[in-house]
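Exercise 7b. C-alpha coordinates:
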Protein backbone atom coordinates (compact mmCIF):
# COMPACT_ATOMS: atom_id res chain seq x y z
CA UNK A 1 0.00 0.00 0.00
CA UNK A 2 2.83 2.35 0.93
CA UNK A 3 4.83 1.50 -2.20
CA UNK A 4 1.81 2.21 -4.35
CA UNK A 5 1.44 5.64 -2.79
CA UNK A 6 5.13 6.37 -3.36
CA UNK A 7 4.83 5.31 -7.01
CA UNK A 8 1.77 7.51 -7.46
CA UNK A 9 3.54 10.51 -5.93
CA UNK A 10 6.66 9.90 -8.03
CA UNK A 11 4.62 9.57 -11.22
CA UNK A 12 2.76 12.79 -10.47
CA UNK A 13 6.04 14.59 -9.82
CA UNK A 14 7.51 13.37 -13.12
CA UNK A 15 4.41 14.45 -15.08
CA UNK A 16 4.39 17.90 -13.46
CA UNK A 17 8.14 18.28 -14.09
CA UNK A 18 7.67 17.49 -17.79
CA UNK A 19 4.77 19.95 -18.06
CA UNK A 20 6.81 22.65 -16.31
CA UNK A 21 9.52 22.31 -18.96
CA UNK A 22 7.10 23.68 -21.58
CA UNK A 23 7.00 26.92 -19.57
CA UNK A 24 10.58 27.05 -18.27
CA UNK A 25 12.50 26.23 -21.47
CA UNK A 26 11.13 29.15 -23.57
CA UNK A 27 11.73 31.54 -20.67
CA UNK A 28 15.34 30.38 -20.26
CA UNK A 29 15.86 30.70 -24.03
CA UNK A 30 14.51 34.28 -24.01
CA UNK A 31 16.79 35.25 -21.12
CA UNK A 32 19.79 33.65 -22.83
CA UNK A 33 18.97 35.42 -26.11
CA UNK A 34 18.66 38.77 -24.34
CA UNK A 35 22.16 38.26 -22.90
CA UNK A 36 23.72 37.54 -26.32
CA UNK A 37 25.07 40.12 -28.77
CA UNK A 38 22.41 41.00 -31.32
CA UNK A 39 24.50 39.62 -34.18
CA UNK A 40 24.79 36.11 -32.70
CA UNK A 41 21.15 35.71 -31.71
CA UNK A 42 20.50 32.79 -34.09
CA UNK A 43 23.91 31.18 -33.93
CA UNK A 44 22.86 28.42 -31.52
CA UNK A 45 19.12 28.37 -32.21
CA UNK A 46 19.20 25.21 -34.31
CA UNK A 47 20.00 22.51 -33.34
CA UNK A 48 19.30 22.86 -29.62
CA UNK A 49 22.40 22.41 -27.48
CA UNK A 50 23.50 23.59 -24.08
CA UNK A 51 24.85 26.74 -25.78
CA UNK A 52 21.28 27.56 -26.81
CA UNK A 53 20.37 28.16 -23.17
CA UNK A 54 23.74 29.31 -21.79
CA UNK A 55 25.36 32.22 -23.65
CA UNK A 56 29.09 31.73 -24.10
CA UNK A 57 29.83 35.45 -23.80
CA UNK A 58 26.97 37.07 -21.85
CA UNK A 59 26.56 40.79 -22.34
CA UNK A 60 24.16 43.52 -21.23
CA UNK A 61 24.51 45.53 -24.43
CA UNK A 62 20.90 44.82 -25.48
CA UNK A 63 19.61 46.18 -22.17
CA UNK A 64 21.90 49.19 -22.39
CA UNK A 65 20.65 49.83 -25.91
CA UNK A 66 16.92 49.84 -25.08
CA UNK A 67 17.43 52.17 -22.12
CA UNK A 68 19.97 54.55 -23.66
CA UNK A 69 18.84 54.63 -27.31
CA UNK A 70 15.17 53.62 -27.28
CA UNK A 71 14.11 55.40 -24.06
CA UNK A 72 12.58 52.26 -22.57
CA UNK A 73 13.04 53.76 -19.11
CA UNK A 74 10.39 56.38 -19.96
CA UNK A 75 7.92 53.62 -20.82
CA UNK A 76 8.57 51.89 -17.49
CA UNK A 77 8.16 55.20 -15.65
CA UNK A 78 4.86 55.84 -17.47
CA UNK A 79 3.53 52.38 -16.59
CA UNK A 80 4.58 52.79 -12.97
CA UNK A 81 2.90 56.19 -12.73
CA UNK A 82 -0.31 55.00 -14.40
CA UNK A 83 -0.41 51.83 -12.29
CA UNK A 84 0.24 53.55 -8.96
CA UNK A 85 -2.30 56.34 -9.50
CA UNK A 86 -4.89 53.82 -10.70
CA UNK A 87 -4.26 51.69 -7.60
CA UNK A 88 -4.75 54.62 -5.22
CA UNK A 89 -7.98 55.76 -6.88
CA UNK A 90 -9.30 52.21 -7.29
CA UNK A 91 -8.73 51.28 -3.65
CA UNK A 92 -10.51 54.44 -2.47
CA UNK A 93 -13.46 54.30 -4.87
CA UNK A 94 -13.95 50.54 -4.84
CA UNK A 95 -13.65 50.19 -1.07
CA UNK A 96 -16.29 52.89 -0.54
CA UNK A 97 -18.58 51.21 -3.06
CA UNK A 98 -18.00 47.82 -1.46
CA UNK A 99 -18.70 49.30 1.97
CA UNK A 100 -22.03 50.74 0.86
CA UNK A 101 -23.09 47.51 -0.86
CA UNK A 102 -22.11 45.40 2.16
CA UNK A 103 -23.46 47.46 5.06
CA UNK A 104 -26.28 49.67 3.78
CA UNK A 105 -29.78 48.86 2.58
CA UNK A 106 -31.23 51.04 -0.17
CA UNK A 107 -33.60 50.71 -3.09
CA UNK A 108 -32.01 49.05 -6.11
CA UNK A 109 -29.08 47.65 -4.10
CA UNK A 110 -29.35 44.19 -5.68
CA UNK A 111 -29.60 45.71 -9.15
CA UNK A 112 -26.49 47.80 -8.57
CA UNK A 113 -24.61 44.74 -7.33
CA UNK A 114 -25.74 42.75 -10.38
CA UNK A 115 -24.45 45.52 -12.65
CA UNK A 116 -21.12 45.45 -10.79
CA UNK A 117 -20.87 41.70 -11.41
CA UNK A 118 -21.67 42.14 -15.09
CA UNK A 119 -18.97 44.79 -15.56
CA UNK A 120 -16.10 42.39 -14.93
CA UNK A 121 -17.68 39.60 -16.94
CA UNK A 122 -17.95 41.66 -20.13
CA UNK A 123 -14.75 41.61 -22.26
CA UNK A 124 -13.00 44.97 -22.21
CA UNK A 125 -12.61 44.94 -25.99
CA UNK A 126 -16.40 45.10 -26.41
CA UNK A 127 -16.60 48.53 -24.76
CA UNK A 128 -13.51 50.12 -26.28
CA UNK A 129 -15.36 52.14 -28.94
CA UNK A 130 -17.96 53.77 -26.61
CA UNK A 131 -15.22 54.26 -24.01
CA UNK A 132 -13.01 56.06 -26.52
CA UNK A 133 -15.94 58.25 -27.61
CA UNK A 134 -16.51 59.20 -23.96
CA UNK A 135 -12.82 59.94 -23.42
CA UNK A 136 -12.78 62.03 -26.60
CA UNK A 137 -15.81 64.03 -25.50
CA UNK A 138 -14.19 64.69 -22.13
CA UNK A 139 -11.10 65.92 -24.03
CA UNK A 140 -8.73 63.73 -22.06
CA UNK A 141 -7.58 61.52 -24.94
CA UNK A 142 -3.81 61.27 -25.34
CA UNK A 143 -3.31 62.09 -21.64
CA UNK A 144 -2.45 60.11 -18.55
CA UNK A 145 -6.07 60.43 -17.43
CA UNK A 146 -7.19 58.47 -20.48
CA UNK A 147 -5.03 55.59 -19.28
CA UNK A 148 -5.97 55.88 -15.60
CA UNK A 149 -9.69 56.66 -15.28
CA UNK A 150 -11.12 53.66 -17.20
CA UNK A 151 -9.43 51.32 -14.73
CA UNK A 152 -10.61 53.05 -11.56
CA UNK A 153 -14.21 51.83 -11.28
CA UNK A 154 -13.17 48.19 -11.23
CA UNK A 155 -16.09 45.80 -10.80
CA UNK A 156 -13.95 42.94 -9.49
CA UNK A 157 -12.34 45.22 -6.90
CA UNK A 158 -15.77 46.39 -5.72
CA UNK A 159 -16.86 42.76 -5.46
CA UNK A 160 -13.78 41.83 -3.40
CA UNK A 161 -14.31 44.69 -0.95
CA UNK A 162 -18.02 43.95 -0.71
CA UNK A 163 -17.31 40.30 0.12
CA UNK A 164 -14.72 41.26 2.74
CA UNK A 165 -16.84 43.95 4.43
CA UNK A 166 -19.82 41.59 4.54
CA UNK A 167 -17.85 39.37 6.93
CA UNK A 168 -17.06 42.23 9.33
CA UNK A 169 -19.50 42.12 12.30
CA UNK A 170 -22.04 44.95 12.18
CA UNK A 171 -21.74 45.30 15.98
CA UNK A 172 -18.41 47.07 15.45
CA UNK A 173 -20.09 49.78 13.40
CA UNK A 174 -23.01 50.07 15.81
CA UNK A 175 -20.64 50.58 18.73
CA UNK A 176 -18.76 53.26 16.79
CA UNK A 177 -22.02 55.01 15.88
CA UNK A 178 -23.04 55.07 19.53
CA UNK A 179 -19.72 56.75 20.31
CA UNK A 180 -20.58 59.44 17.76
CA UNK A 181 -18.41 58.34 14.84
CA UNK A 182 -19.56 59.34 11.35
CA UNK A 183 -19.98 56.76 8.59
CA UNK A 184 -16.87 58.03 6.82
CA UNK A 185 -14.84 57.81 10.02
CA UNK A 186 -16.04 54.23 10.57
CA UNK A 187 -15.00 53.41 7.02
CA UNK A 188 -11.66 55.21 7.19
CA UNK A 189 -10.53 54.42 10.74
CA UNK A 190 -12.06 50.98 11.35
CA UNK A 191 -13.05 49.05 8.24
CA UNK A 192 -10.25 50.12 5.89
CA UNK A 193 -7.41 49.11 8.26
CA UNK A 194 -9.12 45.74 8.76
CA UNK A 195 -9.30 45.15 5.01
CA UNK A 196 -5.56 44.98 4.31
CA UNK A 197 -5.80 41.46 2.75
CA UNK A 198 -8.47 42.73 0.33
CA UNK A 199 -6.44 45.88 -0.37
CA UNK A 200 -3.33 43.85 -1.22
CA UNK A 201 -5.37 41.62 -3.53
CA UNK A 202 -6.75 44.65 -5.34
CA UNK A 203 -3.29 46.26 -5.53
CA UNK A 204 -1.77 43.20 -7.21
CA UNK A 205 -4.77 42.73 -9.51
CA UNK A 206 -4.95 46.36 -10.67
CA UNK A 207 -1.17 46.62 -11.07
CA UNK A 208 -1.07 43.52 -13.26
CA UNK A 209 -3.99 44.78 -15.35
CA UNK A 210 -2.48 48.20 -15.97
CA UNK A 211 1.06 46.92 -16.46
CA UNK A 212 -0.04 44.38 -19.09
CA UNK A 213 -2.43 46.76 -20.85
CA UNK A 214 -1.72 47.09 -24.58
CA UNK A 215 -4.91 47.52 -26.58
CA UNK A 216 -6.37 50.47 -24.67
CA UNK A 217 -3.11 52.53 -24.57
CA UNK A 218 -2.81 52.06 -28.34
CA UNK A 219 -6.36 53.42 -28.77
CA UNK A 220 -6.34 56.18 -26.15
CA UNK A 221 -2.89 57.68 -26.78
CA UNK A 222 -0.75 58.36 -29.83
CA UNK A 223 2.17 60.33 -28.43
CA UNK A 224 5.45 58.70 -27.44
CA UNK A 225 5.30 60.84 -24.31
CA UNK A 226 2.60 58.54 -22.90
CA UNK A 227 4.00 55.26 -24.23
CA UNK A 228 3.69 52.44 -21.69
CA UNK A 229 5.70 49.24 -21.32
CA UNK A 230 3.61 46.88 -23.44
CA UNK A 231 3.35 49.39 -26.28
CA UNK A 232 7.12 49.91 -26.16
CA UNK A 233 7.70 46.14 -26.30
CA UNK A 234 5.27 45.69 -29.20
CA UNK A 235 6.94 48.50 -31.15
CA UNK A 236 9.98 46.29 -31.76
CA UNK A 237 7.90 44.15 -34.11
CA UNK A 238 6.36 45.31 -37.37
CA UNK A 239 5.08 43.80 -40.60
CA UNK A 240 8.45 44.44 -42.26
CA UNK A 241 10.88 43.26 -39.60
CA UNK A 242 11.34 42.32 -35.97
CA UNK A 243 14.18 43.40 -33.71
CA UNK A 244 14.37 40.23 -31.64
CA UNK A 245 17.26 41.41 -29.48
CA UNK A 246 15.35 44.54 -28.44
CA UNK A 247 12.12 42.55 -28.09
CA UNK A 248 13.65 39.93 -25.79
CA UNK A 249 15.59 42.38 -23.62
CA UNK A 250 12.63 44.75 -23.22
CA UNK A 251 10.32 41.83 -22.41
CA UNK A 252 12.68 40.68 -19.65
CA UNK A 253 13.16 44.19 -18.26
CA UNK A 254 9.44 44.90 -18.45
CA UNK A 255 8.53 41.74 -16.57
CA UNK A 256 10.69 42.46 -13.52
CA UNK A 257 8.47 45.02 -11.70
CA UNK A 258 5.31 42.83 -11.60
CA UNK A 259 7.38 39.76 -10.66
CA UNK A 260 9.02 41.63 -7.79
CA UNK A 261 5.66 43.00 -6.63
CA UNK A 262 4.00 39.60 -6.69
CA UNK A 263 6.88 37.87 -4.88
CA UNK A 264 6.81 40.55 -2.19
CA UNK A 265 3.02 40.44 -1.72
CA UNK A 266 2.38 36.78 -2.54
CA UNK A 267 1.57 35.74 1.04
CA UNK A 268 -0.88 38.61 1.52
CA UNK A 269 -2.40 38.07 -1.92
CA UNK A 270 -3.23 34.42 -1.18
CA UNK A 271 -4.63 35.42 2.21
CA UNK A 272 -6.79 38.08 0.57
CA UNK A 273 -8.19 35.63 -1.99
CA UNK A 274 -8.98 33.17 0.81
CA UNK A 275 -10.73 35.83 2.86
CA UNK A 276 -13.00 37.25 0.16
CA UNK A 277 -14.95 34.17 -0.83
CA UNK A 278 -13.01 33.42 -4.04
CA UNK A 279 -11.22 30.28 -2.94
CA UNK A 280 -12.14 27.07 -4.70
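Sequence design result:
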Amino acid sequence: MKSGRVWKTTSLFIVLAIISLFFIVPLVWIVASALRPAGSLYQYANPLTWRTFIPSKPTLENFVHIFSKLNFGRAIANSLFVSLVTILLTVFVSSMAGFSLAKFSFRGKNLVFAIVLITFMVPFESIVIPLYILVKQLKIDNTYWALILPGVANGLAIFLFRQFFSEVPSEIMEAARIDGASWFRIYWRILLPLSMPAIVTVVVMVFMFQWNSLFWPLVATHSSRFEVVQVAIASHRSTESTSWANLFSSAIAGSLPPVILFLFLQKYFVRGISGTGLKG
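Instructor comment: The chain has two domains: 2-59, 66-274. The two ends are 30 Å apart (CA to CA).
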